């Protein structure tokens, strides 16, 4: 037997089949509040979609500590081997709209939330260890090239490659994107990366810099380009269906959580030797220089009950770190620390942290009050904090971080002309098996065959600098498509 229908205020509805009208044939009466409320809510059922990462899937799980890293961090989450914490993960595509296909060639978002006893820790990353740009001031420009042309309302290969060809810093990520890893086989068969450089602080106040890695226990599995296109038409929700179904069947996906760790002195020596800025998001730390250290295991074992409430309204931010964790001078990270929370304020509202999926599992207290959806509003508690006239006794800066030394005058610095954007992209290319290189050439030739000779030649120049065989392979693939470029 179905439950009786009520209004949102709990008032029983006498008739959910017929509007109140003046006579059998109408017109309708404004006093029919159930009709009005039903239509008003229906008109407002769609909150603004995310500007990026609009199409996503989510699941809950458990993070288990398997190795002791307390020498690096005082975070209570890692206090003992075997300790567990509840998690939520949202996977996503980046450039497409909410109704786009799961199998499009695109990076994948891999956003992890761990509900710790000291608050929420959010690791908001991707399935790639690098990114297209190194400064957040260019992020809106880059994303505009991945969206729709403002005149035609069509995706534009010209916009994408015009941007990339003028930004050689993007070459490393472009190579990854157009390799087989640009079309992962669902979300269970891909790795995750924090991508940015973060920091950990131990009980002695010592800082190390780290990069987070989540290595799939299911094994890497990618879709051939033709299969990705086919599935986009046959089953555009392929990755969502695969993740939900696997968890429903009890086939819980797992990832090994690992760290790369370096002191400030080690990074300074590495930068002097390689010329690479360790905080540059377009670069990676090679494993031979900074080996992976095991930390724990992430398992996803519970599907959400309500997609809108628990996945669409999930609001993660890289600014959410707990005591014993910190940031780095990474310019892209610094921009994201502001941008993510600001996006949630616009998309969900000023009290989005009160929603169950976003609320910490530990007690919290602040002087924030009122505003829309103020669910946990403090009640009669004091809504202000006084000034300690006699001087406060702080427990350290921020979350207890040691002071970060700053160097140089405030200004806008562009070192792009002096930076190496080709070696790591070339290294990635040379690591690919021969068949995957051929796939890379074909995947690039598809959209590049649609753009002007000027942009093609500019982009080919970058491939040549990464590895002459890279440029030659793309030229051959373009020629096969009727574009004979010198």
TrEMBL record:
SMART domains in UniProt: Catalase (SM01060)
EC numbers for this chain: 1.11.1.6
Gene3D superfamilies membership: Catalase core domain
GO molecular function, one term: metal ion binding
Transmembrane segments: none
Highest taxon, organism lineage: Bacteria
GO biological process: hydrogen peroxide catabolic process; response to hydrogen peroxide
Span of the signal peptide: none
Keywords: Heme, Hydrogen peroxide, Iron, Metal-binding, Oxidoreductase, Peroxidase
Requisite cofactors: heme
GO cellular component: cytoplasm
Catalyzed reaction equations: 2 H2O2 = O2 + 2 H2O
Family matches, as PANTHER family: CATALASE
Function statement: Decomposes hydrogen peroxide into water and oxygen; serves to protect cells from the toxic effects of hydrogen peroxide.
Subunit structure: Homodimer.
Family of this protein: Belongs to the catalase family.
Protein name: Catalase
Source organism per UniProt: Pseudoduganella violacea
């Amino acid at each position: 037997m179905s439950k009786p229908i009520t209004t949102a205020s709990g008032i029983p509805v006498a008739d959910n089949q017929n509007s109140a009208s003046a006579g059998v044939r109408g017109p309708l009466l404004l006093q029919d509040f159930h009709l009005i409320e039903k239509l008003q809510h229906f008109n407002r059922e769609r909150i603004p979609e995310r500007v990026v990462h609009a199409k996503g899937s989510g699941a809950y799980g458990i993070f288990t500590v398997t190795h002791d890293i307390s020498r690096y961090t005082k975070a209570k989450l890692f206090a003992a081997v075997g300790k567990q914490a509840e998690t939520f993960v949202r996977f996503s595509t980046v450039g497409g709209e909410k109704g786009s296909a799961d199998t499009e060639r695109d990076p994948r978002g891999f956003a992890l939330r761990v509900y710790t006893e000291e608050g929420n820790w959010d690791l908001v990353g991707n399935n790639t260890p690098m990114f297209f740009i190194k400064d957040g001031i260019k992020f809106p420009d880059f994303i505009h090239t991945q969206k729709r042309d403002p005149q035609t309302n069509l995706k534009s290969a010209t916009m994408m490659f015009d941007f990339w060809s003028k930004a050689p810093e993007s070459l490393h990520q472009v190579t990854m994107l157009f390799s087989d890893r640009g079309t992962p086989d669902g979300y269970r068969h891909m790795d995750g990366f924090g991508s940015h450089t973060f920091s950990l602080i131990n009980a002695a106040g010592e800082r190390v810099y780290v990069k987070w890695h989540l290595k799939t226990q299911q094994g890497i599995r990618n879709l051939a380009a033709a299969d990705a296109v086919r599935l986009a038409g046959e089953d555009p929700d392929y990755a969502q269906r695969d993740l939900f179904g696997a968890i429903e069947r009890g086939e819980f996906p797992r990832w090994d959580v690992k760290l790369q760790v370096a002191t400030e002195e080690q990074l300074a020596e590495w930068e002097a030797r390689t010329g690479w800025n360790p905080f540059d998001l377009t670069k990676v730390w090679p494993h031979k220089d900074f080996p992976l250290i095991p930390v724990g295991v992430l398992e996803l074992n519970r599907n959400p009950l309500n997609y809108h409430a628990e996945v669409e309204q999930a609001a993660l931010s890289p600014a959410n770190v707990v005591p014993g964790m910190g940031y780095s001078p990474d310019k892209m990270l610094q921009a994201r620390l502001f941008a993510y929370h600001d996006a949630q304020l616009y998309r969900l509202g000023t009290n989005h942290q009160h929603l169950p999926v976003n609320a910490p599992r530990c007690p919290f207290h602040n002087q924030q009050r009122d505003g829309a959806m103020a669910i946990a509003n403090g009640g009669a508690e004091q809504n202000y904090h006084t000034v300690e006239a006699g001087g406060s006794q702080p427990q350290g800066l921020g979350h207890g971080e040691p002071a970060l030394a700053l160097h140089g005058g405030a200004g806008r610095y562009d070192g792009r002309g002096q930076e190496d954007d080709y070696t790591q992209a070339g290294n990635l290319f040379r690591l690919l098996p021969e068949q995957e290189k051929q796939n890379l050439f074909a995947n690039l030739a598809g959209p590049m065959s649609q753009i002007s000779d000027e942009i093609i030649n500019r982009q080919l120049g970058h491939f040549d600098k990464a590895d002459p065989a890279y440029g030659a392979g793309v030229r051959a693939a373009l020629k096969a498509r009727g574009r004979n470029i010198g």
